From TrEMBL:
Source species: Pseudocercospora eumusae
InterPro entries xrefs: ACAD10-like (IPR052898), ACAD10_11_N (IPR041726), Aminoglycoside_PTrfase (IPR002575), Kinase-like_dom_sf (IPR011009)
Organism lineage: Eukaryota, Fungi, Dikarya, Ascomycota, Pezizomycotina
Domain Aminoglycoside phosphotransferase intervals: 70-314
Stretches of the chain forming a coiled coil according to its record: none
Name of the molecule in the record: Aminoglycoside phosphotransferase domain-containing protein
Taxonomy, superkingdom: Eukaryota
Length: 411
């Protein structure tokens, strides 16, 4: 099952990057309640599809699903249109399809990759929806699509998981962390997925991508004022630091989700554990630290004053919310490696730098009046705070290296 929320993908001058605003000032639009049950999130079809053609395809290829179908669409502008299918036996399924028209990015909207990773994880203990079918024939409903099982459970837009008991909050976070750790221990070769991505130099590839983006974004001029967006604070020094092999974490290659966070998982309707991980379009083989940093970003973002949404993660504010140190302890208890304190700080710094580039991209889109969000100007203005926070983390990483006797971390 996939659930609908404000989609975390921002197309920045043709390249897509996962949004950081789930962890920051993005409004929670899932529901007026802190947790949204998945079924209630579907409504009228907004992006029309050929329902007769879909039914014929299902009749011929998917005997598990019994037509006729009742079809609704999940909401809030996710990158891949997503539909709730209810068959004649009242069984529910979810269909994800590529958007219509010419796509800005060749690497986004890859529903075939989503289907492939979900199907590959079926025999593992990583909770995912059941993969039903993949159709790459665009003649059926206009673009390729896949169908998976529907998961009825709770989705929390707020990572502090409000309106549950402190004990439940602790257990739900522990389940989220151990689920990630179990996922990282699945060897791609064990599920015939060795070709799903390159197992090394993940951060170098990321750095190259974001550097190319940032240069173009910085030079973008406002169509009214003529003023360029400008560089991220300390940009050159940060790129130099991140690109230095002597400063980087020990290279590792595992499955990575690419957008692992609390609102990308379904929790049991009444019990404090994860029953499904969703939104796999960014999945690849990469460095597991990137997923850990993404999941624990709310603790880091409390240091950015303009991101008041993360006050719940300040020490002692939310009963039952684990410390970041406890989260790392839970993670390390499952995997066969351990990130040093210096490596975690390096990962934080890179994550904040990445956030700055994403914000800069929003600012660039606003400058040419291509940003669709009403809050684009506000979000774009966060590039400076994220850049300053990233630079502070770089300096913290250097100090930690000196403390540990690893003087090679100096610029």
């Amino acid at each position: 099952m996939w659930r609908a929320k404000t989609r975390g993908t921002l197309c920045i001058f043709g390249a897509c990057s996962t949004s950081l605003f789930y962890h920051s000032s993005h409004q929670h639009v899932l529901s007026s309640t802190p947790a949204c049950h998945t079924q209630s999130m579907a409504g009228p079809i907004r992006q029309q599809i050929d329902l007769d053609s879909l039914a014929k395809y299902i009749d011929s290829n998917v005997p598990e699903i019994k037509t006729p179908l009742d079809v609704k669409q999940f909401g809030y502008g996710q990158s891949n249109p997503t539909y709730l299918l209810t068959d004649s036996h009242k069984n529910k399924y979810v269909m994800r399809k590529k958007p219509p028209g010419k796509l800005l990015s060749k690497t986004a909207h890859q529903v075939d990759r989503e289907y492939r990773i979900i199907k590959a994880l079926q025999p593992t203990d990583v909770p995912v929806p059941k993969a039903i079918c993949l159709c790459e024939d665009s003649n059926i409903i206009g673009t390729s699509f896949y169908i998976m099982s529907f998961l009825n459970g709770r989705i929390f837009a707020d990572p502090s998981i409000p309106n549950v008991s402190p004990t439940e909050r602790t257990e739900m976070w522990k389940s989220a962390v151990t689920t990630l750790a179990k996922f990282h221990t699945v060897k791609p070769s064990s599920v015939n997925m060795s070709d799903f991505g390159r197992p090394n130099n993940f951060y170098n590839r990321q750095l190259k991508t974001f550097a190319t983006l940032s240069i173009a974004q910085a030079e973008t001029k406002d169509i009214e004022t003529g003023e360029p967006v400008g560089k991220i604070p300390h940009y050159d020094d940060m790129v130099k630091f991140f690109g230095n092999p002597q400063t980087q974490p020990t290279d590792r290659g595992t499955f990575v989700h690419g957008d692992y966070k609390i609102d990308n998982m379904v929790f049991h309707p009444t019990k404090p554990h994860v029953i499904g991980v969703l939104d796999w379009e960014m999945a690849t083989i990469g460095h597991p630290l990137s997923d850990v940093v993404n999941l624990t970003a709310p603790w880091v973002h409390t240091g950015i004053r303009s991101l008041r949404a993360n006050d719940a993660f300040k020490a002692g504010v939310t009963p039952g919310l684990p410390t970041r140190e406890k989260v790392l302890e839970w993670y390390h208890a499952v995997v066969d490696w351990e990130f040093s304190k210096q490596e975690v700080i390096w990962g934080d710094a890179f994550g904040l730098y990445r956030g700055a580039v994403i914000c800069q991209g929003i600012a660039a889109r606003y400058a040419v009046r291509q940003a669709s969000s009403a809050n684009a100007k506000e979000f774009g203005a966060q590039a400076g705070p994220f850049g300053e926070m990233a630079w502070k983390a770089v300096q913290d990483c250097q100090r930690q290296g000196e403390k540990d006797g690893n003087v090679k971390t100096k610029l």
